[in-house]
Amino acid sequence: METKVASTEKQTGKSNETYLEVLGDTVVPSSILLSVVISMTFSIGGYFVGKSIFPSIAEPKMVASYSLLLGIAGSVLALILCAKLFKPSRILKEEESSVESFQEILRDMQVDAKEEYQLIVNDPVTRKEMEELGILDTFKKSGVQSDK
Amino acid sequence: MSVLMISLLFALLGAILFTLIGLVSGTDETAIMVPFTLLVILLGAPPEAVLSFFMAAVLAKHLTHAIPTALMGIPGDTTAVPLIDHASSLRRLGVPHVALRKMLSGGLLGAFIALPTAVLFGQFLGQFADFFKSASGLIFTLAAVLIAYFSKGKWVSIAMIIPFAFFIKSLDQFSFQIVEKHLSISFFLGIAIGPMFYDLLLSLSSSGRASLVRTKPKEYHLAPEIRAWKGFFPNPFRVLTGRQAAHTSVTSFISSLTFAFSPVGMTSLMGEIVGSRNKGVYKKSTSSLAAMNGVTESTYIAEAIIPLLAFGIPLSPVALGPAAPLFNAPPVFTSDPVNNLHNLLTPWDFFLYGLIGLVVAAIIAYPFAMNYARTATVFVMKNISQEAIVGMFVGLACLLAFHEAQLVGVILTLTMATVGGLINRVLGVGAGVQFMIFYGAGYMMTNLLGA
């Protein structure tokens, strides 16, 4: 038993790099730093470029606004660049609809399957809606099963 | 170009932009709404267009935020937190698409109820505006105490009011010495990106880093899609049962009037009330979700519009957070003296241009979320990394701060983000409390220290 735990620990430790959780999602430490630096450079860089070229081609009072726009363009560019450079570190699992047995889920939520089904059947509006959505059968099955 | 056309265009821009942003789950609404709204204002959009943009953005973002909430069981933003329980029940029962449809329809209904209600109520409250304006410093201070008490930190938040005001005033004085104008955008942005910046700083600290380290990437579970309706624009009144539509309407109407309360609090409360009136998991969850999403929408809209229309000073949690630039975005808008949408728009304008925003967002975000929820989620999850998103917001904040006061602005923003983020994350002094203290700082320091 002990060896098993140790071996899995070893595996996870070896298999990949570490991640950091920033604002609820995992990131690679070096990427996030680079990304912030790239984004700051591009946005403020764009602003500087605007400040130096617009005075010759635009009205004086619009220079600041146009420069700001160029700065935004820079930050959007940085977003695209960073999205290309740094791939998301997320694991996306596409679930099957019936991973757990329906009854177990209901039991887990402390709901009596039979009672739930009765409530649905006795309420014409809800019953009709679930019929149209094609999900009434699932509820029905578990409701009838627990009846036995 | 006529103001109407410009407003339509900005509404379109807000709707498209925030439909996409809404897909990114867990995003903090203040950190996102503030920079973009500021940009629109500083770029010189007319006040009508600013309102249309904001309304479109709010509705679009909330509608698409229902997608991660329903399909993955992670809250789209903080206002979606109270919806998670019901959403995951339905997800586990294998009907997340029903949850999504109910939420979207409820949200849409809530938004269109909130706008006229808020405009009328705002107009009614407007008769007390002079009193509120003349006593604004005192009101901000009292409100700071009240909001602090209801924040996560509770007593610590209250204890932090004076020191934080002192801190803000000191930064203000020092930056005034250098650039010879009082800054506010830089302060705002600092408070807004504080929590995000805190995580970044912690990741750099060799002692604090451990708490953020994860050994494997975060896992997301995406529910399968079952398309069960025909057409492109499902009628919300057909998606909701008559009873659900009635419950959603009533709760949205009530929460449009309680503009001083927290949106999350109102959402939980209304959800509980509706839930208690419906029996059976399926019915309880679907009815609560529709009503709750309606309430998040209506509180948001009402909390932005009522203080704006009635007083011109930010007196609600939303006005102090995501909607803050509508009140105060110098040199264009200021709240002391009041020169913002309050005096630039008539109540009729509020209704008309607000409606433009809502309608445009409804046309874009609602069918998008109904039809492409899953495809869009997979695209974002697989292609847009969190690194790129966080990078962009820090970059945008620095750009705006630089625009206000060059390097002084950037340093001020980062200083505010450091201190604000720390007391937000560690002590639980929320962004709303910090914004309130920022507004009341002048009054407090003048009366306390004679400064």
Automatic annotation (TrEMBL), chain A:
Keywords, in A-Z order: Membrane, Transmembrane, Transmembrane helix
Tree of life domain: Bacteria
Membrane-spanning residues: 32-50, 62-86
The name this protein goes by in its record: Uncharacterized protein
Native source species: Brevibacillus panacihumi W25
Automatic annotation (TrEMBL), chain B:
Domain spans labelled DUF112: 8-425
Pfam family, one: TctA
Coiled-coil residue spans: none
Transmembrane segments: 36-60, 106-125, 155-171, 183-204, 350-369, 389-414, 426-445
InterPro entries (UniProt xref): DUF112_TM
Keywords: Membrane, Transmembrane, Transmembrane helix
Name under which the protein is recorded: Membrane protein
